[in-house]
Design brief:
alpha+beta; 5 strands
Length: 210
């Protein structure tokens, strides 16, 4: 026969498991919301949503398919902002020498490949964002990341991309993707993000498809 003491122990055990599970869910939700908040702060604006947002999402899915084909393997391509944007993430080490803002030959090759897709979709704008890890002085990291972002923008413009479609920002060590206390994390944080966002033409089309 189960004693009252054993019943209490079992009940406490179940309650503990429930609390841990609930905390895990809340932590996941918080991490997801913070990730979305960081992206919104970095690139600006908000998702359109609704039928118009779904229309933009379908167009962005087309861009992603092409980018998967034309860009080299060492990159990450994903849809973001509820499918209304495409984010291309590149390792800064592929594009720049350490503590330098001059584009490498590899960088120029990748950007030429990117130009093909960008010019095929004039209804899409680009946001170029460069990040560093947290090693060194914060202000120097910010300046370096700004120079790198401008260098990418200027090279794409030289390849024929309309400069009015592009915006560049250097974020320095803000919004780390991984833990800066670990070497692997710092490597992931030294990155370049190129966002494909709906331009005025695509936004106008989307409004017609509500």
């Amino acid at each position: 026969m189960v004693t009252m003491e054993e019943k209490v122990k079992r009940w406490c055990g179940w309650l503990f498991c429930f609390v841990i599970a609930l905390a895990g869910c809340k932590s996941s939700e918080t991490a997801e919301s913070m990730s979305g908040k960081k992206a919104a702060e970095a690139i600006g604006g908000v998702a359109v949503g609704g039928a118009a947002g779904a229309y933009i999402g379908r167009r962005m899915a087309e861009r992603k398919v092409e980018l998967d084909v034309v860009l080299p393997r060492k990159r990450a391509i994903e849809t973001a902002r509820k499918g209304e944007a495409v984010k291309v993430t590149l390792d800064s080490g592929l594009l720049f020498l350490q503590n330098a803002s001059t584009l490498s030959d590899t960088a120029k090759y990748i950007l030429r490949q990117l130009t093909t897709c960008v010019n095929r979709y004039p209804d899409t704008n680009l946001k170029i964002i460069c990040y560093t890890d947290n090693a060194g002085e914060a202000e120097l990291n910010r300046i370096l990341s700004e120079r790198r972002a401008r260098g990418i923008r200027d090279y794409l413009a030289a390849q024929g991309v309309d400069a009015s479609r592009m915006d560049s920002r250097g974020m320095g060590a803000l919004y780390p993707a991984e833990d800066n206390r670990k070497p692997a994390g710092r490597l992931q944080n030294r990155r370049v993000e190129i966002w494909f966002l709906a331009g005025e033409q695509l936004l106008h089309e989307a409004q017609q498809h509500k």
